[in-house]
Amino acid sequence: MHRAAYLFLLSTMLLWGGNSVAGKLAVGHVSPMTLVFLRWVLAVLIMLPVGWRTFREDWPELRRHWRLLAGLGACGFTIFNVIFYTALNYTTAINVSIEQAAIPIVIILANFVLFRLHVQRLQIVGVALTIVGVALTASHGDLGQLLKLDLNFGDAIMLVAVLCYSLYSVGLRLKPAIRWQSLMLALSFAALLTSVPFFAWEVAAGRVIVPDARGWAVAFYTALGASVVSQIFYIRANELIGANRAGLFINLVPIFGTLLSVLIVGEQFQFYQGLALALVLGGIALAEYSGRRATVPASRSPSLNMSGSTQK
């Protein structure tokens, strides 16, 4: 179970790291809100032939929980990305990376407040190590640069994005017992609907950049890799080991994004990038060691998997 969760999470973070590179490649080839809109149009089109039959069969459960599913799709899929892109217009990539590293902390706090889920001391140490790794990456190896950061409007709204994705991760434990195809199609529908107002605003403001060949390639990648496949993996991993432990892997995203930039964009590999990767992986390993020990007694109780059955 744990190995499968780790494989899902590492694949997810690699795909999300690739999304960072895709974002760089998209500049000037497709506008941000247009990209968000096309991302979910394509995601729905991808999921329709895969999930329509199960969607109809699961419709009674979907209808009963439509508010929850709409909220999850809006928060985790659309609003986070809209704010993320907007924040980068007002603040630096360093600030955004550091602030995004707060997601695991907010997940832990939300799980404690809402569900009284506790964490072990070693898990807290592990979280701290991953944050140092992210800070090292964001500051390009010079942690002293963090003292020079100026907080502004972009940083304020990025904290809203952090809260949105954290609540999405925690809220996944409340999802109905439906099959993954139905769940992903429902969340994609919700994301598409909530992306329309932002796309309409961009059109009205005259800021639309119609995608060219590269823009469409980025859109297809964000739809298939960074949306459909990665979200299915992330949801399944949350189901296997819980949001507290799965959320910690999110701090691999800037690390993988930097390494992929070296491979794809041709940026030069630096020593601090290897050190940051070691810190993040070490922090995750430490937190997982503690988390597995703490959940052994609880593993005897059944939990729902994405097919709606129970597992031990």
UniProtKB/TrEMBL annotation:
Principal cellular location given in the protein's record: membrane
InterPro entries (UniProt xref): Diverse_Substrate_Transporter, EamA_dom, EmrE-like
Keywords carried by this UniProt record: Cell membrane, Membrane, Transmembrane, Transmembrane helix
Positions of transmembrane segments: 36-55, 67-88, 94-115, 122-141, 153-171, 183-201, 213-234, 246-265, 271-291
Keyword 4Fe-4S listed: no
GO cellular component terms, A-Z: plasma membrane
Membrane topology term: Multi-pass membrane protein
Positions of the EamA domain: 5-137, 153-286
Annotated coiled-coil segments of the chain: none
Location(s) in or outside the cell: Cell membrane
Name of the protein: EamA domain-containing protein
